[in-house]
Amino acid sequence: MTRIALLSQRLANQIAAGEVVERPASVVKELLENCLDAGADRVEIDIEQGGSKLIRIRDNGAGIVKDDLGLALSRHATSKIANLDDLENIASLGFRGEALASICSVSRLELISRARAATDETAWRVEAEGQEMSTAVSPAAHPQGTTVEVRDLFFNTPARKKFLRTEKTEFDRLEEVVKRLALSRFDVAFSLRHNQRVIQHLHAALSVQEQQRRVALVCGPAFVENSIQIDIEASGLRLWGWVSLPTFSRSQADLQYFYVNGRIIRDKLVSHAVKQAYQDVLFHGRHPAFVLYLELQPALVDVNVHPTKHEVRFRDGRLVHDFLFRALHKALASVRPQDRLGAEAINGESVNGESVNGEGVVSAPGYASVERSAELTGDFAGQERISFAGTFGSSPTPLQSNQFSSFSAGYSGPVSQQRVAEQVAAYARLQNDDDVPPLGFAIAQLHGIYILAQNAQGLIIVDMHAAHERITYEHMKSACQSEGIKAQPLLVPLSIAVSQAEADCAEQQAEALLALGVGIERAAAESIVVRQIPVILAGANIEQLVRDVLSDVLEHGSSERIRNYQDELLATMACHGSVRANRQLSIAEMNALLRDMERTERSGQCNHGRPTWVLQSLDQLDKLFLRGQ
Ligand code: ADP
Ligand code: MG
């Protein structure tokens, strides 16, 4: 057991300084971190009046020996670091040796502890009231571990007390702190009581199922039901946890937990990488939800940046950013309809109104745990291990950019007799076999907008324009990345009257546009000629397409930037190349679209992040008709 010692003046000066006790929540954060640092696996938190009257935290950790009790309350006294080397390799949550000193200077504090290493069977107590500390250590009754009791916070600093909000607001913040720490350590049991009422009661969660249950209790069951579980390792970095499906986005960034080596942080670099990974699939202005853990060598991250330790500095920010982006991007791309269906099927059966009440009855969706692997590209290829566990089965089928979908944009040619025969045969199988594709077989089209299909679970409804738009977009993106977009010359070049600015732009950006498959020449001051377009957009309204692309390009400016906005241009083009509402589709065409959706990355959302399909299970339909009730 390491004893507490005063930091040298030099070392104390190297520690990010600042006040950490702002409100009850910050007291709870500091005290809980001490419990975890002491190796406790059970922590009980008792709060009265939002924490301003009482905060009592008891743990079963290593405790503090009698002779160190007074020191624990002194400034710059810590058992966690002793020299500069330690400061650069911090494995504990605390290290500043200031928390207890700060807290006791603005409250009435009592510290009782019985050390694991103690030779006698007694616990010891010290007390402090504001600036006055009684040096007397008195015997007390206490099992192994430590209790810190903080009463009347800010009793001697009325100015700070004035800044406290209502009891409820302060308690909400405090509870959020407990949640964050509860998500950081699944192996520790937490209980939280407010005015004698049990608010959270979390058992130690060791298995994946139990951890999932804790996440559901803390973040709400809907989050777990609508998220994928990831575990990715590359270049000495590991990222694991839960990320929401893009269709489960939020209006605020309030369900985002990111941990670096067990410490929760808010970091610009991390937010940026996450945002980029979701960029293509999230509805504008919405925020993803996630609980993610990044693990790396302590020496590769500096936690001594800010007194509250909410910020960190990565030694190699670029590497971390790229790793996060790639890992999440890949995970999101790999979501297929069959995955979501798996989740819904399971949840439909087993979620029964999660709640934490009284002693906290816990129930969470039972998740089948299946591992599958996928590959990252680029720097990380070959070294990483990816597994998406939880709700998912089946391995992803990589999209082949040259093997273009059976469902071509314009439906230019008739569907072959053979295809129809295949579909009919497949449909026949549906009757007696459970060999049904995830999105099932089409049965009808509704108002020229929706496709209705029957699958093993019930009714699938597909927004056909949204779905096709995504498929076209993904095809164009992957074609663009591999051999380039295949273009086809127009039999009759199309002249379009445009503004002078648009014509200038078309002329200047001719090369960049050609790379996207659009061949344009300037014909006159206010006129351009379109000579070729991407094959996949054959059926599109070319004039409208070109006008929209030009207006995008005008908005984004230089060709350098066009490259950055390439995906946006492709999305604009994809929208034009996609099947419009009010188009009559044959059953075979509808089935071809369903199969394409199953194959295509990110096909669960359209290019704007809206869902492309929903499931109405037989159970749900039965409920509608009050069957079996
Ligand atoms: P720091 O955590 O930065 O070291 P603190 O002021 O929070 O500083 O705590 C001072 C010291 O008191 C710690 O280094 C630790 O040795 C001891 N301590 C505080 N709380 C506990 C606890 N719950 N269990 C065991 N030791 C504790
Ligand atoms: Mg501490």
Describe the structure.
The protein is an alpha+beta fold and 629 residues long. Among the domains are: 9-200, Heat Shock Protein 90 (2-Layer Sandwich), CATH 3.30.565; 208-337, Ribosomal Protein S5, domain 2, CATH 3.30.230.10; 485-575, Ribosomal Protein S8, Chain: A, domain 1 (2-Layer Sandwich). The chain contains 21 helices and 26 strands. The longest helix has 18 residues, at 167-184.
β content, as a range?
Answer: 15-25%
**Cofactors and ligands present?**
adenosine-5'-diphosphate, magnesium ion
Largest sheet: 9 strands, mixed
The CATH class of the domain at 9-200 is Alpha Beta
* CATH homologous group name of the domain at 9-200: Histidine kinase-like ATPase, C-terminal domain
User: Using DSSP, what is the number of strands?
Assistant: 26
What does the radius of gyration come to?
30 Å
Our count of helices gives 21
Helix/strand/pairing category: alpha+beta
CATH architecture of the domain at 9-200: 2-Layer Sandwich
User: Which topology of the domain at 9-200 does CATH recognise?
Assistant: Heat Shock Protein 90
Proportion in helices: 25-40%
Q: What is the general shape?
A: elongated
* Distance N to C terminus: 62 Å
Q: What are the low-pLDDT stretches, counting only 5+ consecutive residues below 50?
A: 344-417
Provide tags for this entry.
21 helices; binds adenosine-5'-diphosphate; 34% helix; 26 strands; 629 residues; Ribosomal Protein S5, domain 2
